[in-house]
Amino acid sequence: MASDPVSPQQPDPAAGIDPAAAPAVRRLALIGLGLIGSSVARAVKRWNLAAEVVGHARSAATRETALALGFVDRAEADPAAAAAGADMVMICTPLGTYAALAEAIAPGLKPGAIVTDAGSTKTSAIRDLAPRLPEGVHLVPGHPIAGTEHSGPEAGFAELFAGRFCILTPPPGTDPAALETVRALWQGMGMTVHEMTAEHHDRVLAITSHLPHLIAYCIVGTATDLEAQTREEVIKYSAGGFRDFTRIAASDPVMWRDVFLNNKDAVLEIIQRFTEDLTALQRAIRWDEGETLERHFTRTRAVRRSVIAEKQA
Amino acid sequence: MASDPVSPQQPDPAAGIDPAAAPAVRRLALIGLGLIGSSVARAVKRWNLAAEVVGHARSAATRETALALGFVDRAEADPAAAAAGADMVMICTPLGTYAALAEAIAPGLKPGAIVTDAGSTKTSAIRDLAPRLPEGVHLVPGHPIAGTEHSGPEAGFAELFAGRFCILTPPPGTDPAALETVRALWQGMGMTVHEMTAEHHDRVLAITSHLPHLIAYCIVGTATDLEAQTREEVIKYSAGGFRDFTRIAASDPVMWRDVFLNNKDAVLEIIQRFTEDLTALQRAIRWDEGETLERHFTRTRAVRRSVIAEKQA
Hints:
homodimer; alpha/beta; 6-phosphogluconate dehydrogenase C-terminal fold; three-stranded mixed beta sheet
């Protein structure tokens, strides 16, 4: 209800590519044209970050939409056809598709091509992609921390990434020029780019993103199981907090299934901590420990102030 | 990030009081001038729902703010002085204050006065208020399902309630005219008013509001306990879902402490169900049960559509 105090900012040209310069990427192939892929395509077109954008989508309807909306120059049903000859290939499909996609596109990749992705878990991305790519192709895994609960090619928009963070997790020995090209692409879309190891990324995102989604899916499921009359009322009176969870729990089911399966250890570890903390609060409620509750609730308020200070609210 | 598709609507005059008519309430006393009390005051002024608004706040700073912003005609340090002679007294303070407030205001209440409230749990409101009010004073407990994570007299705004639901939980035998007056007041602020028993209200709100807040407080607490470096990163990368929880977990600590202490049974019951469901999801992740996860995540998507259909998104 409270309006978001930080609206997505337009990319800062100083932070990105000189708009007058030629695009840093000649041909960009986007594998997957859902929320993320189609937003990248729109941003790349808007800020002239690649000379040509080729897209792959399995569904004919998505390919038609992409061509009709004009955010790709060409749409291919075969991922290998989209990736062949591209200077950069960005995988924007659920994590469970990575291994098969890498097998499919590998033979047609041009020497010196960059393969990157936008997936939410990074150790699994490296595990599934690295061993399948040919010598001379550069892997630079990435994760733009941005999204909405909407899915599909119509849901994308060019400003999705502006003012947000992108994490790159280059494996040791990554080609510096390839890393720089991927970094410049996200910066050109208005993102602040950070680097860290894939393992560290997966631990941090387990708490900032994976656990919140699991919890939201869980609580909405709990409500769905209530007797029918109560369930209707839960929806009617959702403005008391529940509706924010329904928004998160409306995110793409296949994408999130794959996130949990591919970041299992970090997610299970953080669920364990969360459950312990919930049990402590539950116990405080049962034993009327008002001070414990108030102390806990006061402490968490400060975190909100930090989020606002970091302009991520 | 996605903008709220339903902006608060202006109250529909057909649903409320005829704006040309005299206000239905002559003198309204608001006990507590935080987010809710000050929003009620502003709405009452804006739509001329009471001839006079008197406010009570313990803090001198709040009273000064209320007078400076002009949403009360008079501000009293003593709740009894604010309530004395009022036609309607609305309690807008944390639930833990109700019993003492009722003791304090009871002697000065005028015969036929209506006492109502805006608290989040209703069996406790009746338990703490009813036995302390004199004969001839009408108790009509209420709960406007609206709020933000902000607190205090500056945080209020007249449109807070517009387009939302208000639940009234009149005990058996409540005076119909008093009930109608309270109903008309909330309708005049743009709310749709429903009636149910206090017990039913508390069960429904345990899932739509109390559990979501507890979970949000919990997950933000879990993140706060991480080692310092990770904690900084959790804030930086909060756009992945976590930031929505930090917003909810920034809600007023004392108000929420009192909610949990005063709706203990319903909250403990729903935590139990939630924990069982979370354990099932945790197990599905551990055992790579992708189908179970996908089925669960698909089911919850439908709930979001219902929330949007009910215009509560």
